Each structure stands twice: as C-alpha cells, then as structure tokens.
Amino acid sequence: MTTSGSFSDARPGPACAAFEPLLPLASHGLLKPAEERRLQAHLADCAHCRAELAAYDWLEAALRQRFEPGALAPLQTEESMHKITQELDRESRAEQQREASVTRLHPRAGVRPRRVVSWVGAMAAVLVIALLTTALVASRLKLTNNTSAVPLAQLTVYGTSDLGTLRALRADTGQVIWQAQTGTTSGGKPVVDHGIVYVGAGSSGQVSAFRSSNGSLLWSAPLGVTDRGPLVVGGVVYGYSLTTDAAGNQTIFVKALRGSDGTQLWKTPVGSTPVAPGLLGEFVSDGVVYVAVAESALPTGPTQFFLYAYQASDGHLLWRSQVTHPDSGSKIGLAVDQQRVYVYVDRVYAYSRSDGSLLWNSQGPSAYLGADPNSVSLQQGIVYVAAAAGVSAYQTSDGHLLWQFAEQGQAISIANGVVYTTAQVSRAPGRAMVALDGKTGKLLWRYEPAQPATFFPLVVGAGIVVGVTQQGMVALDAATGTPRWQTPVGSNGNAPVILSDTLFVGAFGAGPQHDSWGYTALSASNGKPLWSTPITEGMTFPSALTVAPR
Amino acid sequence: MPEPNCLAPPQPLTRAAFTTLVERSQGDLHRFLYGLLGHPEQTRDLLQDTFYDAWRAVQRGAAPLVMGGAPEEMRRWLFHVAHDRAMMALRRRRLISWVSLDERVAVEDAALPSRASFEDQIAEHAALDVALAALRPKDVSCLLLIVVQGFTAAETAQMLGDSPQAVAKRFSRAKRRLLDAYRAQAEAPQEPPRR
Predict the structure, then answer these.
(1) Distance between CA atoms of B64 and B72, rounded to whole angstroms?
(2) Which of A31-45, A136-150, B57-71 has the highest mean pLDDT?
(3) How confident is the model at residue A326 (pLDDT cuts 50, 70, 90)?
(4) Which chain A residues touch B170 with a CB distance below 8 Å?
(5) Which of A10, A199, A207, A316 could bridge to A47 as Cys pair (CB 3.0-4.6 Å)?
(6) B126 vs chain A: nearest CA distance in angstroms?
(7) Percentages helix, strand, coil for chain A, rounded to the nearest 5?
(8) Chain A residue closest in CA terms to B11
(9) Does pTM surpass 0.95?
(10) Where would I find the beta strands (DSSP E) of A427-526?
(11) How many CA within 13 A on the CB side of residue B127?
(12) Would an 8 Å CB–CB cutoff place A106 in contact with chain B?
C-alpha cells in the first residue's frame, strides 16, 4: 500500500474489536449518536483505531480515484443508445411495411390529438399536487369502526406499488385475489367506497376506479388528488384541475365526479383570476366541501389566503373567508366539526360553518415549521394541534389553550381521550413515545427504547400503540406503555392499519427472512406474522394499505 | 371530452430530453458497471441494455422518466436498473465462462492521465480491482454507490432493494473486506486482474 495507505504498527487493544464494524461507517453519518460518542472517546486513546480510520479514508479516496471521470475510455452517446437506435429502426421499417400493405380510407383515423401542457403549467400542477392535503380523518375513523370486528376472511387488503400495480389480497391469507395496472406510477393509498377502489397518484394527476370484486377498470380521468389517495365521500370523488388561459393565467377548478362512471357532476373555479393559486387543503363534511387556497396576484403581488365552502351537491359557493395569515407558502391543517372549521397555519383559526365568520384564533405551538396535513385533530370538544414544536390542546368553543406539550416530535395519534405523541431525547426528536391525558396534558407514561430509535408515525388500536422506526415496529400497551413486542417488519414504512386484532402494513420486512418489500399481516397481540406477500416488480415500494370488507 | 389545456398526466421524456439524460448519466453508469463487471465489452453491453430499459420505460410513461421528473430520481432509477442487470449478468457468468477480448488494465491504461506516479497508480488500481473482485457483487455495488457515486445509505437501500440498516451493515462489511483484500493484494506480486 502506498502513501497514506500505510498502516500503523500500533497493536489493537482489547476494546478495539467492538469498534471494528463502526470504523467504516464513521465518515458517512451512519452511526447512531451513542455509537458516535463511544467511538470518538475510543479514538482519542487508541492509535490503532485512528490508523484504521485513516486507512478507510485512504481506501475511499483510492476507490473514488479508480472510478473518477476520465478513468475509463470516453463513451459516445450514439454507442450508449445503439440498441435503442436499432429498435427504432426496426419499428420504423415494420411501420412502413404495415402502411404499405394497408389502404387508408381515413387519413390518420384513430390518432388522438396530442395534449399540450405548458412547462410552467406542468410544474405548477406538480406544485399544487404537492401542496394538496386531504383531511379524511372522520370518514376513515368511521371505516375503522365499521370493520374492527369483521372476520379477516371477510376483509380485503388493497395496496399499490410504485410501479402502479394495484393488488387486492385476502386479509386472512395474503393471497392475491386480483391485480391491475393503474396506469400511473408512485401509486398512492387506495380508497374504497361503495364497492369501488380508487387510486390516484399526486404526481400523475390521474384517478382510476376499479371494481373491488374483480379489479376491472371502470374509468380513469385526470383529477388532481393528494398523494394519500383520492377524496371520496358518498360515491362522489372530489379533486381539482388546473387550467391555463392564453395569457398564462392559471385557475384551479374544484371538481366532483360520479364514482360509478367518472361523469363530471360539477366544476367550479376557485379564487379570482389572474391568480397563481396554491390549493392548500380540502375537506368534505356533511354535504359541504371546504377548500383552502393561497392566491397571488400576478406577477409579484401579495399572497392572500382564503377558505371557501361549496355545496357538495352542485358546487354552489356558500361562503368565502380570508385568513389573515401572512405566509401561505406551506401546507395547512384542516378539520371540521358540527359548528366550526379549524385551520392551523401559524395560529389556530376557527370559522363558523354557517357563514365563514372568524370565531376565534389562538397562538399555535411555538416555532411554527409548517403544518402537517394531519396536524389538527378533534375529540370530545378539544382541538389538538401537532407541530414540530410539540402538541397544543384548545377548547373548541372559544380557543382557550388547555395545555401544551412542548417537546419536539410531530407524530400524534388520539384514542379514547389519550394523546399519543413522540418526544425528544437528548435533543433528538421522536426518540421517545409518550401518552398524555387529552383533557389535562398530564403525562400518563413515557417510553424510551434501550437502543435509540425514532418513532414515526404512531398508530393506536387493539389496545396497543405502534411506533414505526427505522428498525421495524415497536408495540406498547396503550394503557401503560409497557413494551408488548417488536418486529423487524415494517422498517421505515407506512403507518400500519390495525383491524380485527391484526396489523396490516406495506413496507420492508416482508418474506420469511424479513428481507423484501411487500405486504405483511401480523397478530396485534404478539407481532408474529400471519402472512407475508412480497412484491417483486421494479423498485417496489408499497403504498400505505387500505383494508375494507368484501 | 377532455378539457382544453387542463391538468394532464406528465408527458414522457422527449427524444431530446432522453438523449440529454443519456449524455449526463452514461459516464457514471459506465464506471459503476465496469466496477461491478470488470470487462469493458460486457460493461458497454449492459450500459446499452440499461438505456434500452430506460427508453422502454419512457415509452410506457413510467415515472420518474417523464417531463418534469426529478433528475435525482431518474439517476436512481438508472442505477437501480444497471445494478439489476449487472447482478443477472454475474449470475450467468457463474455458469458461462467469460473471455474478454481486451485486458482490463491494457484498455483502461490508455485513458489514464500521465502522472509522475503512473506506475504506482497502475499497481494501485490493479490491486484495487483484484480486491474488489474478491468481494460479493452486491457488496461492490454498495461500495460504489455510496463511496464513488455519493448516494446515501437510504438511496442505496432503495436501489438495492434492501433496508437502510442492511445497507449500513453491508457497507461496513464490504469496506472491511476490501481493506483486508487490498492489504493482501498490495503485498502480493501484481498480475492483470480477472473475474
């Protein structure tokens, strides 16, 4: 070995063996904080390990030099694309032969006009999709309650992969009942309503509807939706479209489609033109569609932030209210109860459902860093707001601050009057799970794992609270915080669904060796896998799952 | 009837955009595949296969190879496909003896810049090549993606179909084995490496 690759003659000490696996990771930020501290302390006293660390650094530099640009003979693009060119030539010849052998009665019949979307429009669409948030907490809780006691044999699990394959699996065995191509990629969480499975991907702006019994495609239409799935309420699909006129002005339209056949029921423009709109949130409740929009007068006018309420049956505008928040460039939290619409930006605002008048506003959790779509939750006359800075609880009637839990950690889940959230440990947010009394904010229990892990997200059900970590899932007794079980399944994954004493999750850890991406069902009581169905196509990242009765 | 100028699915990459993608990524992919395979001819074949797969994906309108798709996602997609192609080729190679028409070092030497430590560098490269050949292919992939291409462990996990934890373990093990193999090589007489 040459130059800096020379090795020290220092002999390893008895403690060195424990640090051997850590040394190669040291310069890549792959060590846990505790490991990092232990290693640094050891390195201060150990010449052997310092030399080993230097050798690894040298090795990496040598590798980079070995494969640096210019290390290999230069390539011509024509050579890289040789097979493509061959294929295109072959297709072209085949096309010419076909055309020569067919008498064309109608010039180019059947060729659909190409849709032209401006670059700016497409980018704006992506931005809008990214900003769109959906709060379907109420309807999804309802689904959970309806299916909590249903035998597994009567449930179906629906999930998509990032190559757009939608699968329906038996909830009791994991057997694939049917699978279909959605025609989109980055498939979001499926939504099931009235025997129809809807899949929409935020990046594609396309919603597809499939018959839940056999996976046959019912319809597919361009309709912007959140990346967590289409907003479907009572057989109607709500979404938006973006149009650009000749002058480049863009308008968002809120649309409602009939779920059974995709027919447009109504469409209404949101905001005044010309605007550069950003759709920040929407919610459907009791026959009213609430939409939060940021509007900027072109080209550089100030941004204003409005809340709209439309009649869900025909799109008729019921009221419009301006939110006095100065910065609209982020997502918002939105929730609705019988009397009020609650909006969380940097403050918490409550509007009258009947006429949109502002009822109260209250300071939100400090250090506002942008609202998560699920940041506002309602339960028993209390509105809970979760942010990076912590959790705050307000009285819904007047906005009175009941309590604050000012430890960093954004995950929140509420059940039976208890708020489950994460807390910081040694300045690392999310490293502990805590349970707080929903009315008083009193700490009920706190759990810190022996090995540092970040819990996100949290899901409550079947008497347990489940935290998803990089290493897998950890389940605690919801009442006491006592660890029940942990599993490598579900690492870095989506939030699991808990139904009928079973956890369903689409994540890493599927398969007998827990080394595949796929779908897994586990017993809620002991975490043991009931079945596991790996998915194998392409870069297979499963979506969050939806579980629904057959 | 579709609405005029309304929100539409992303359009597939145009031929021009695809060519630009090839131009920008072929060098990195070429070096990555060569690091895994060690044979110039097979490397070029698989590079063409990788771009052919990409072109097919473009024709399907598959993300992220669409207009407006994130460049870093496209890069990950290409490396993922190249990795899979290389792993398949290496599995086949176990069954079929591969005879390269070129000697690896002889071909690549021509591209190396002239330096005072030229001989040292050749010896160093040869030792590294042999040391790399002693590792498991997936370990080499992990090393090249993280060290040479600068991907994070999470991104590498995505491309290799592993968990980030598995990739961290693999990375640690691969570096240790590479160092051991390199030390053994550096002290041994140099011969042109073969895999």
Answers:
(1) 9
(2) A31-45
(3) low
(4) none
(5) A10
(6) 9
(7) 20, 40, 40
(8) A117
(9) no
(10) 428-437, 443-447, 458-461, 464-468, 473-477, 483-487, 497-499, 502-510, 516-523
(11) 24
(12) no
